[in-house]
Amino acid sequence: MDFKTHLKKYLTDTFIDELVSSLEKERTNFLILNTNKMSENEFVKLFPKVIKHNFIKNGFYFDKKDYDFGKSFYFDNGLFYILDSASCLVSYLLDVNDGENILDMCAAPGGKTICLSLKNKNVQILSNDISYQRALILSSNIEKLGLSNIIVSSNNIDILENHYNSTFDKIILDAPCSGSAMFRKSEDMKNDWTYNKVLSCQKTQKDLLKKASKMLKPGGIISYSTCSFSFEENEEVILDFLSKNKDFSIVKIEDFDGFYHSESLPEAIHIFPNKFKGEGQFICQIKKDGILAENKHENTKMNPYGFASFETIDNREYLYNSQLNLKKLTILRKGLLLNDIIKGRKIPTFHYAHYLDSNKSISLDEEELKKYLHGDEIKKITNLENGYYVVSYNNINLGFVHVVNDKLKNLYPKGLRH
Questions:
Q1: Which residues on neighbouring strands pair with residue 270, listed in sequence order?
Q2: Are 204 and 175 in contact (CB under 8 A)?
């Protein structure tokens, strides 16, 4: 079955023609601003050609001809994260509350985790991806943005299912899919699409949703999403799950202009590029019966940094607040990576530099910025005692330097230098 024909399961011929036509047009570009580092007004003053999203907080469209943000040092230093506006909606539309434990099951490269963390820094997120290499990318993105409420793991979902029973208040399941909403982004994805791939993905999606349901607390919500336009991977997966799990019900998602609702599952939403400025997404929220119990937090004395827990793992010092049992899991990053311990000496990290605000940083001028990004030592009279200090440009922290007699020895990560 070809792509257009299979869409007739729930879309009219006219709508299908409009959708397919939109897939030949240029893709959209979108970012979510890290307002821990800069306000929306300051960002617009700095980049006046960006376009504020009409309802996504901190969201902006941009034209790559105006700003090639992906190659900007601002991107490398966590001022914003670039993703599809439709993808961002998964986190934007999920109602979360302080103190909740949230699982992002298939998280890499991290867009939904990042959007959720920026939305509420007082939730605790376990962000997992089965691929260790992709989880490393996820961990790197979190580091750049300076986010501290995320634990990054790389585990098979079977391991998580056996480890966590009725544990999470909310679960994000952005399920692996056939990827038709990525056709404008990737020609390879377009060429790789087959109806058999759709059916194969459906089996995986049903299995993952079943596993997610076991890890969810009574009263909790699963946000199920795909970047597929296929009815088989969206409505059919949800309807099949609901028919077998009577203790779950649909949560109606808040409606905005441009959302599409199918007749068979009107509470869920489709994002189509012919109706919404984005690439595409299906989002459905389902709730488990019961009353959501408040999480019990141990009476752990807060350390001077404001975190409940401090831990040293493989000569790396972490600070975090999560009460989740993480034993026997493969963990890449546990909250805020504070220090690396090298030959007995504590070296503050790039992650820590981006967690801190810029108030007490050493401000660099444009020429010094170029030197720092290149990895060069900078001579600068600071009148500071020898030690480690954060340097910034335009109030955006860049990283640490080791000040030795007015010489700023560069600690900018080698992988970011240019």
A1: 260, 282
A2: yes
What pLDDT, on a 0 to 100 scale, did the predictor assign at position 306?
A: 80
DSSP readout, 3-30? Answer: HHHHGGGTS-HHHHHHHHHHTTSPPP-E
Total H helices, total E strands in the chain: 13, 23
Number of neighbouring beta carbons within 10 Å of residue 201: 21
Whole-number Å distance between alpha carbons of 89 and 380? 45
Q: Enter the pTM of the model.
A: 0.95
Burial 142-153 (b: 16+ CB within 10 A, else e): bbbbbbbbbbbb
> Looking at the chain, how many residues does it have?
418
Q: What residues does 317 pair with on adjacent strands? A: 312, 339
- Res. 300: pLDDT tops 60: no
Question: Residue 380 in contact with residue 406, Cβ under 8 Å?
Answer: yes
Residues 209-220 have pLDDT tens digits of 999 999 999 999
